[in-house]
Amino acid sequence: MKDIIRCENITKAYVNGDIETVVLKGISFEIKEGEFVAIMGPSGSGKSTLMHIIGALDTPTSGRYFLDGKDVSSLSDEELADIRMEKIGFVFQAFNLLPRTTVLRNVELPLIYAGVGKEERAAIAEKALTDSAFPQDFWFHHSNQLSGGMMQRVAIARSLVNDPAMILADEPTGNLDSQTGEIVLHTFQSLNMQHGKTIILITHELYVAEHADRIIHIRDGNILSDEKNKHKRVAGKEKNI
Fold first, then answer.
1. Would you list the DSSP string of the chain?
2. Residues 158 and 208 sit within 8 Å (Cβ to Cβ)
3. HSE-up of residue 230 (Cα within 13 Å, Cβ side)
4. What's the rounded Cα separation, in Å, for the pair 148 and 183?
5. Phi, psi of 27 (to 5 degrees)
6. Mean pLDDT of the chain
7. How are beta strands 36-40 and 19-32 bridged, if at all?
8. Quick one: what percent of the chain has pLDDT higher than 70?
9. What are the phi and psi torsion angles at 176 (to 5°)?
10. What is the per-residue pLDDT for 238?
């Protein structure tokens, strides 16, 4: 299996006047194609900063970051934007859907921006919704007619349409109750196990992290542990929640 992510001694520091704050202190790890990995840490641990670097939203102060074999450590903002479009499917806590737009159209949006033709993007969006086990009866509902759990599943389907090298999910259950969060976590597990998708889950909750196969635990800008999850939870499956 090839490395999708390789971080080599990543540091990140922010300077405010004469004060330098070092947030990441030499982070190194690899994530291989087809892995489901949780990056876990409390508020202030550095996990959000690491997520921004992994997601090509920011660059490290020092060290090297390889995404799907390409060194993206010092790319320009424009080059980083291209990498995000081509290589990363994002799922955020806040869903980020257009409210008075249908589910299918929301999923198509990245393809519209990429200039994909109408028929092709509809077929790709339908496949993404099917792979995400999103019920077809709701494809033409507006997103503001859906529950929080269903909106997040639309966001997951949208993250798939560019066939990214990885799906990066930042606190994807943070706005959901525990039952609905289980449905979302089941969707990630299914995409990983049945479709071989590489999933990276950012969370501060151990319960959520335990749905992954491997947990990287960070605190104070350092990796505390990086271990196979021996207590994996299998999420429950329900529809239309």
1. --EEEEEEEEEEEEEETTEEEEEEEEEEEEEETT-EEEEE--TTSSHHHHHHHHTTSS--SEEEEEETTEE-TT--HHHHHHHHHHHEEEE-TT----TTSBHHHHHHHHHHHTT--HHHHHHHHHHHHHHTT--GGGTTSBGGGS-HHHHHHHHHHHHHTT--SEEEEESTTTTS-HHHHHHHHHHHHHHHHHH---EEEEES-HHHHTTSSEEEEEETTEEEEEEE-TTPPPPP--S--
2. no
3. 2
4. 11
5. -85, 130
6. 92
7. unpaired
8. 98
9. -120, 150
10. 47
Q: Residue 49: what pLDDT?
A: 95
pLDDT of res. 240: 41
Residue 95 has pLDDT above 90, yes or no: no
Q: What is the CATH T-level fold of the domain 3-228, as seen in this structure?
A: Rossmann fold (3.40.50)
- CB distance 40 to 217 below 8 Å: yes
d(CA 169, CA 156): 9
Query: How far apart, in whole angstroms, are the C-alpha atoms of residue 102 and residue 145?
Result: 9
More confident: 179 or 108: 108
Name the token pair of 101. 């737009």
How high is the pLDDT of residue 223?
97
CA dist 65 and 87 (Å) reads 14
Residue 15 CA to residue 3 CA, distance in Å, equals: 32
State the Cα–Cα distance between residues 78 and 85, nearest whole angstrom.
Answer: 11
Phi, psi (deg, nearest 5) at residue 144: -75, 0
Residues with Cβ within 8 Å of residue 179, at least 6 apart in sequence: 236, 238, 241
